[in-house]
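Quick one: C-alpha cells for this chain, please?
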Amino acid sequence: MILKTTLAVIGIARPINTSEMVSIRPESQNNLIFTDGNNFSLTLESILKTKNKMYEFIVSKNPDAVFIYDLETFKFLDVNAIALNLYGYSRQEFLQMDLTDLYLPDEIQTIADSAKHEEGKFLGPFNHRKKDGSLIQVEIYRISFNYEGSEAHFNIIRDITSLLEKEEQLQMMRTVFEYSQDILIVTDNTGFISYVNPVVEKYLGYKRTELLNNSIVQLANENSRNDFIKKSLTPNHFIARIKNHSGKEIETEFTSISFAGVDGAISQIAYIGKLISHESDAKVTVVEKEVEKIVYVDKPVDKIVYVEKKSHGNHEIRPGGIDPGQLSFIFHEILTPINVIVGFIAELKDTIEVPTEDQAEAISIIDENRKKLLYTMDSISEYAQIEQHFGDIQKQKFSLDLLLEKVLRRSKRPIIPGRKHL
C-alpha cells in the first residue's frame, strides 16, 4: 500500500508519494538544499535562475509578498506579483530599486539591525513606504542564502497594517470600558461572565473574581432572568432588577447585544447597564455658610440741606459717609481691566487696515460705553467730594409760598450801584 502525506515548502503544500519524499536540509554557507529520492538537489540560487516548478511554489505563487535582495548592495534580485501589488511598483521599477527605497531616511538603520535578528520566524513590525508615499507596517520572515558568490536574503513580507489598527481600536475600547461609569458585563454564549468593568464593583459591591465564570442569571431576580437569556444580534433594551452583594435589588436599565464568531454562531453577549435613580434615594447635601443680613430702610425726607463745617479750613467726613480714598482704590481696580480691554481693542483696530462695517460699529460701541463708565465714575467722585466738604445733612421744614413771596419781594428792590444784593 502506498501512503500519502503532505510536505510544506515555505507555506505551500502539495501531496507527494512517501517513496519520493523531498527533504529540506541546511547546507554549508547558509544554502537551503531541496532534495528528492533520486538525490537531485536544488538550491535557492538554482531555483531562482531556472524558474522551474519549485520557483512557482516558493516565489511566484506564494500567497505572501516575496522579494530577494543582495545583502552587500541591497539591490533587488527578484520579486513576486503580490509584492508589486502591495508596494505599487511595476516589476521593472522594483528591480531598479534597492531595499533602502522602502524605508524612511531616518529608519534605514533598522535594516542593519534586522539583519542581526534570528532567521526563520516573522519579525517586526517595520515601517515600509509604498510608491504613493503612504506607510504600511509589515512583518518580515528572512532566510539567508548564497547567490552568485554573494550572500542574499529571501524575504516573505506580510502587511499587518490593518491588524495593528484593529488592535489599536480594541485597546481604545478596552480603555473606554475600564473607565466607563456604566455597568459593562460580557458573557459567553451560555451566559457565564467573562468580563466586568471596575464600576460593577462600585455599584454592586462584588469583586471581579466573585463574578467571573459565574452565570449572569444569578444577579437577576426571578422576573428579570428571561431578559438575560435572550440572544439577539441587534440591540435589546430592557429594565431588570439585579441584586448587589448585600442582596438588595437595584433597578437597572440594560442594553444587550450578541456577537457572532467566525463560524456565524453567537459567541459572546455584552450587557451595558445604567442604574435608575429615584428621587427618594437622592441624597441632599446642605452646606451652611455665614452671611451678613442687609436691610434697606426708606426714610421720608422733606428737604436736604448741605451745611458746610468750619474746621480751620479743613473739612471732616461725617460718620458713615463715603471715603474718597476707598473710592480711589475701587476706581483703580475697575480702570485696570478697562484699560486692558481698550488697549486690546486699539491694537486690534490697528491690525485691521480696512475694518468692516460690523467691526467699526463694534469698536464704536465699546468706546462709547467706556466714556459712559468714566462719566459715571466721575459723578460718584464728585458726590464723595461733596460729602467730604459738607457736614451732617439736616432736615428743615419750610413753606414754599413764603419762599416764593420772599424771592419776589427781593426781586422788586431797586438796584443801588456799588451795593451787593442778596
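The domain at 4-162 is CATH 3.30.450.20 (Beta-Lactamase).
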